[in-house]
From TrEMBL:
Superkingdom of origin: Bacteria
Domain (Solute-binding protein family) ranges: 66-424
Keyword Signal: yes
This protein's UniProt keywords: Signal
Pfam (any one): SBP_bac_5
Organism, scientific name: Herbaspirillum lusitanum
Keyword Signal carried by entry: yes
Similarity comment: family membership: Belongs to the bacterial solute-binding protein 5 family.
Protein name: ABC transporter substrate-binding protein
Length: 515
């Protein structure tokens, strides 16, 4: 095992001294991310790799309790409108420049407010001002109380970016997007497209003695069977959900010295759905969207396409997220009912052929596209499937250039953080694949979303979200499929891999390998 720059770092506690230093962790990133600038792209593979480069003010325990990140402490005023963060001292950007409160002010008040699909919804609605009280203290004043505000500070939701690199530039075309610079325990070294991404330890990381690893290599292996073989042979030590075909999980899990967990997704509570472009026929007709729901056997999808790694969704809010309500219309699998709904719609499906834009996250999603095509053809649709890589999928969905596609998104511990962004009329904005891309519009729901987000009473919020869920399911604002269950398999030689509510997307500062 190699000894690199970080292998000689100072250890500061007896607990730290128990860790083995050095070595290379080999993992897989698939599909290959289009970008590693976490403030501009939040696709799952980007989160996985760039979560080691960028950090937020806070981290989160599996119980969703806030823990120190770039902020070592924080205070909330009695009226719930002023948040004061005290920052870690001695933090440097990967280019050696000092990190300060000015970076936080720039990130929240300018960069994320403009470009981030989730953060900008919260910032624009609630944040009145962001200012530096000193180089290590930041004050954020809200227009009104917003109970889940702290939960917005997750690395992919509120990544802190370097002001000295981005201020005054065209954010999306800044050359630094190709060589990301953060404050995290690992620094970008090399990206050979189609082959690998290499991150190396940050010897100046603000947590003394960390990270323990010398480097992380994310291998790009397009074929699912080849990824499974690479894990079996020990060429890679970590398999994320989707890296291997779900049919192989049980076999790989049984291999000697393989560890298995479904933890590390508490913050995300990922939910999958069908996006139907509501700007044009046939999906501008609610009866057609309801027919799609009746035509798809979602239990079959979970049991046979995703091999039981999921739970049929009832609506837009995951059952693992606060304010979930089961009091929503049910869509049973019923082809006869689906055909009747098509007839009620008055839409001639033969005159509105549709294309399914495939979701580039592995064989199970390809099979879901095939199954959906067959299901829709049984009720009169004419359907084609278009293939796409991750970059193409993101671009086309961001530009609203699709008929029907699939997606899954994270809920971030509160509907105001992870769900509302997909349905607010004001969030029908080009440039992100994780906003209201389908074009759903309902002014009454917009008002209720805002009322629920701003309410200080949990009872008031619960009632508002219950109404929202019932309406969105009735109107098929999206076609709700299932709640994802995400397995992680890893070598027994790997330690501290999943420690927080964001699991594999966290920094890996504490990960170490047996020699």
């Amino acid at each position: 095992m190699s000894l690199g720059l970080c292998a000689t770092g100072v250890l500061t506690s007896s607990a730290a001294q128990a860790q083995t230093r050095g070595g290379t962790l080999r993992a897989i990133v698939q599909p290959e991310p289009p970008l590693l600038m976490l403030g501009l792209n939040q696709q799952i593979p980007t989160q996985y790799v760039a979560g080691k480069i960028y950090e937020s003010l806070l981290t989160w325990s599996p119980e969703l309790q806030a823990q120190p990140g770039l902020a070592k402490s924080w205070e909330i005023s009695k009226d719930g409108k002023t948040y004061t963060f005290t920052l870690q001292s001695g933090v440097k950007w990967h280019d050696g420049k000092p990190f300060s409160a000015d970076d936080v002010v720039f990130s929240v008040d300018k960069f994320l407010r403009e470009v981030h699909p989730r953060a900008r919804v919260i910032i624009n609605q609630f944040v009145a001002s962001v200012k530096a009280l000193s180089p290590t203290r930041v004050e954020i004043k809200l227009k009104e109380p917003f109970a889940p505000f702290l939960k917005a500070f997750v690395s992919d939701n509120m990544p802190i970016v370097p002001k000295h690199i981005y201020d005054g530039t065209d954010y999306k075309n800044n050359p630094a997007n190709q060589t990301p610079i953060g404050t995290g325990p690992f620094k970008f070294k090399e990206w050979k497209k189609g082959s690998y991404i290499i991150l190396v330890c940050n010897p100046d990381y603000w947590q003394a003695g960390k990270p323990y690893l010398d480097e992380i290599v994310f291998n790009v292996i397009p074929d699912a069977a080849s990824r499974a073989v690479a894990f079996e042979r020990g060429d890679v030590q970590v398999l994320r959900s989707g890296d291997a075909d779900n049919v192989d999980i049980k076999r790989l899990k049984a291999l000697p010295n393989v560890q298995y967990t479904t933890k590390g997704w508490e913050m995300f509570a990922q939910q999958s759905y069908i996006q139907m472009n509501q700007r044009k026929p046939p999906f501008d007709n609610v009866k057609v969207r309801q027919a799609v729901m009746a035509a798809i056997n979602r239990k079959f999808v979970v049991d046979n396409i995703f091999f039981g790694l999921g739970k049929v969704a009832t609506g837009p809010v995951s059952s693992n997220t606060p304010f979930y309500s089961s009091d929503v219309p049910a869509y049973a699998f019923d082809l006869k009912k689906a055909r009747a709904l098509v007839k009620e719609s008055g839409v001639d499906l033969s005159k509105t052929p549709v294309k399914i834009l495939s979701y580039p996250y592995g064989a199970a999603w390809d099979r879901l596209a095939e199954y959906t095509r067959q299901s829709l053809e049984q009720i009169g649709f004419k359907v084609e499937i278009e293939s796409a890589d991750a970059g193409t999928w993101s671009k086309r969905v961001s530009d609203f250039d699709f008929d029907l596609t699939f997606s899954f998104t994270s809920q971030y511990g509160d509907p105001a953080l992870g769900v509302s962004r997909l349905y607010l009329t004001r969030n029908i904005v080009k440039g992100s694949a994780f906003v209201n891309n389908q074009g759903y519009k309902n002014a009454a729901m917009d008002e209720l979303w805002d009322k629920a987000a701003a309410a200080t009473s949990n009872d008031e919020r619960s009632k508002a979200y219950a109404t929202i869920q019932k309406t969105l399911v009735e109107e098929v604002a999206n076609g709700y499929l299932f709640e994802l269950e995400n397995p992680t398999l890893y070598s027994g030689k790997v330690h501290n891999l999943v420690k927080s509510a964001i699991g594999l997307n966290d920094t890996f500062a504490d990960v170490y390998l047996d020699k």
